[in-house]
Amino acid sequence: MTEPTPRTRVSRRVGSIAESATLAVDAKAKALKASGRPVIGFGAGEPDFATPDYIVAAAVKAAQDPVNHRYTPAAGLPELRKAIVDKTFRDSHYQVTVDQVLVTNGGKHAVYNTFAALLDPGDEVLLPAPYWTTYPEAIKLAGGTTVEVFAGEDQDYLVSVEQLEAARTARTKALMFCSPSNPTGAVYSPDQIREIGRWAVANGIWVITDEIYEHLTYDGARSVSMPVEVPELADTCVVLNGVAKTYAMTGWRVGWMIGPRDVIKAATNLQSHSTSNVANVSQRAAIAALNGSLDAVEEMKVAFDRRRRTIVAMLNEIEGVHCPVPAGAFYVYPSVKGLLGKTIRGKVCTTSVELAALILDEVEVAVVPGEAFGPSGYLRMSYALSDEDLTEGVARLQTLLGEAH
Fold it and tell me: Is 247 within 8 Å of 51 (Cβ atoms)?
């Protein structure tokens, strides 16, 4: 009798996926705070503002309407897809049609759907690093291979076309692009975006461009959409976006993909078997958000800009820390390489993972180590928290890290 082949309890495909480091740090910080410890968390990538009242009111009204208690089209409510088309033209000057839009369960779902629709096993995706922690896991789930292209603080975390070309092979299928960037806050200039877009077209490479932070820019920086700057890219480009960051709607879970019709049709077929439609109440809230004004984000930007300046200045006062000034999003990405190998309260940290753990243990401040986004030697800190918590949290870092020797 043939012995059965040993089998894993969890599939290798899913078992190889790492937990979201940012969500893990945020969960740990919240758990410690709930237990009574005065933890200050810099881990979560979400605005610390309430969703605007008019959006909440639209959701309440939608919940009371039985039409929203039923299944709706997997691709999204027609009214929301039209609102996305109108918003995209209004904000980016990118002209698309409703059949080029798929509404997803948040931005992460849009990322997953896109890679699932585009990649076959062995396809390579160029991924500028530091990168958002979800990108390589979604690529892996789709059977693709991530090829990291690292740009450090000396390049303001912006990769060059020369670096991308050096990483390109015959198996390169796509480039994952994000500007303004999570985790660094870096913003590519229009000239840089045009150069990268033209390079992608010349080499037959798809571009997946994440524009979720498009409205959060500072110091005159401007977010531009690659298929607008390089129109010939449109047939091999997927734009990702959502309401989470602009309208403080992270918990509502509404994102979207915009792309060529055949890709959107394929991704819609996938979604019809995985999640079907996004919750209708959330979709109705998103319609209100997109058809409304951008006053809410302008108010948030004033607070974010103030906090941005404060956190950069305070971090750069710490010997061994170098924090470039971010031009977008709500993150700083300081290099802490100058602290690695030094003794801090009797301990020597050789990686940013070890340093982040020491910081949490010693001064109860939660930060995300650079290993979650690429090479060691960095920390990601969100400044989407109150001015008081931000100042107190960085002051604790100044005290602890100032003891390094």
Answer: yes
Tokens 């660094």 appear where? 184
- Domains present along the chain, CATH in parentheses: 12-50+296-401 (3.90.1150.10), 53-291 (3.40.640.10)
Q: In this structure, are residues 258 and 228 in contact, taking their beta carbons and an 8 Å threshold?
A: no
Which residues pair with residue 150 across a beta bridge?
A: 129
The DSSP letter of residue 328 is: B
HSE-up (13 A, CA, CB side) for residue 21: 23
The per-type count for the chain, helices as H runs and strands as E runs, is 14, 14
Q: What is the pTM assigned to this prediction?
A: 0.94
CA 127 to chain centre: 13
Calpha distance 295→275 (Å, rounded): 32
- Give Cβ neighbours of residue 368 (< 8 Å, ≥ 6 apart): 21, 22, 25, 42, 43, 183, 356, 379, 380, 381
Give the C-alpha separation, 356 to 368, whole Å.
7
Side-chain half-sphere CA neighbours of 56 within 13 A = 6
Give, in order, the Cα–Cα distances in Å from 11 to each of 4, 124, 270: 17, 22, 20
* Residue whose tokens read 């585009």: 118
> To 5 degrees, how large is the angle CA 123–CA 244–CA 150?
40
> To the nearest whole percent, how much of the chain has pLDDT over 90?
88
Structure tokens at 99: 């059949």
Give the pair of three-digit tokens for residue 338.
């100058």
Q: What is the pLDDT of residue 15?
A: 85
CA distance 77 to 188: 33
Contact 48, 385 (CB under 8 A): yes
Is the pLDDT at 28 greater than 90? The verdict is no
Give Cα 215 distance to the centre of its chain.
14
Alpha helices in 153-204 (DSSP H): 161-167, 190-202
According to DSSP, the residues that pair with 239 across neighbouring strands are: 209, 258
